[in-house]
Amino acid sequence: MLPALVFIALAAFTAALLGSPAAGRASVLHLILAVGAMPLIFGAMGHFIPVLTRTRGAPARLGAVPVLALAGGVLVVAALSLPGMPWGRHAGAFVAATAAAALLAWSWRRRIGMLGRPHPGLAWYQAALACLVFALLAILASAVWPEQWPALRRLHLHLNTLGFIGMTAFGTLTVLMPTVTGKPDPGAALRLRRDFPLAVAGTLLVAAGAAWFAPLAAVGAVLWAIPPVRLAANWLRLYRTEVFRLHGAAPLLAAALAGFVLSLLYGAAALSPVGLVPVWIYVAGFLPPLVTGAASQLLPVWLRPGVQNAWHARLRGALGRYGGVRAVLFCIGGAVAGTGREWGLLLGAATLLWFIVQAVAALVHATILQKEHTP
To answer: Is residue 98 part of a domain?
Structure first.
């Protein structure tokens, strides 16, 4: 299921960025976040949580969770895009909240049932899921308090982007870069524990501030920016050569981290009338390099679990080819889109299309090679 969710996410991102100049912002954002990112993150959590808790793999029934999330996301996008579906927004939020709550409950059962102390990355995942549940409850609450809709909508957006996706991404990036480079990061676990309160406080301050009291949002953005800036400094110390390579996943992961920091800074600056659109750098300069970088490393594992061999190495190399060039293009597209220029979004879409074509070609070639070497 995970490879299918990757390509669904990439297709949703590309369609949304290509259609963004003509479509409404709400439908574009929900196509990216609810249809593309949310189901993929749920599927990836089902893969990583057993690793973080040192327990057996996820049961087959857990595969229903990302499917349920996808259904909820499609309902919301349909409600925002089609006339005659006023009920779809709340129905989709309820379906997605059910999926998020189920995954959160399963993660707690794994935490309680494990031996020893879990990896600190688990706390990031669980906080991310809790943020998503509350973000979706804010949408449901708007049916009871319609006069609070503008504030609840802003609360929902920031709990989703900084809480759910942001905390998931940061926890994953911290442990994925050492895997991608093949070089350990001895301080990763300690930093995750130290930075966790900053990320939680930053998320809550930004969300509450954006909803009701703007100065809090600026404080929260500064707090949230501290962990990724620290991580970036550590990466430059440990992985500078890999980050600035022409090929591989490492440049894309670094670009994703840079895009996230820029979206926070743009968000803080957007409180003043300078014409910045932080959400566009988020969707064009952060999410695309994050997903393509992670996919370059993890798709071979998800396609053929088990012992890694030359097949995995060849496919990983093909997926990461010219990753450094794509990282630069994503950074340019995101920074430009964040200033309100639509061609930055189109550049992000074109770069995504490049990766999709390259990935399909790599998978076809890998399948042919596998058949040729199968007795």
So the answer is: yes
d(Cα 59, Cα 16) in Å, to the nearest integer?
33
Query: Comparing C-alpha atoms, which of 9, 193, 186, 184 is closest to residue 119?
Result: 193
What is the C-alpha to C-alpha distance for residues 246 and 235, in angstroms, rounded to an integer? 17
Q: Three-class SS of residue 318?
A: helix
Does residue 75 belong to any structural domain of this protein?
A: yes
Greatest alpha-carbon span in the chain? 68
The number of domains in the chain is 1
- The SS3 assignment for 54 reads coil
Alpha carbons within 13 angstroms on the beta-carbon side of residue 297 total 22
**Residues with Cβ within 8 Å of residue 21, at least 6 apart in sequence:** 342, 345, 346
Domain encompassing residue 24: 1-118
CB 132 within 8 A of CB 100: yes
Q: What is the pLDDT of residues 217-272, one digit of tens each?
A: 889 988 999 999 999 999 999 999 999 999 999 999 999 999 998 888 877 665 54
Classified as helix, coil or strand, 141 is helix
pLDDT for position 277: 75
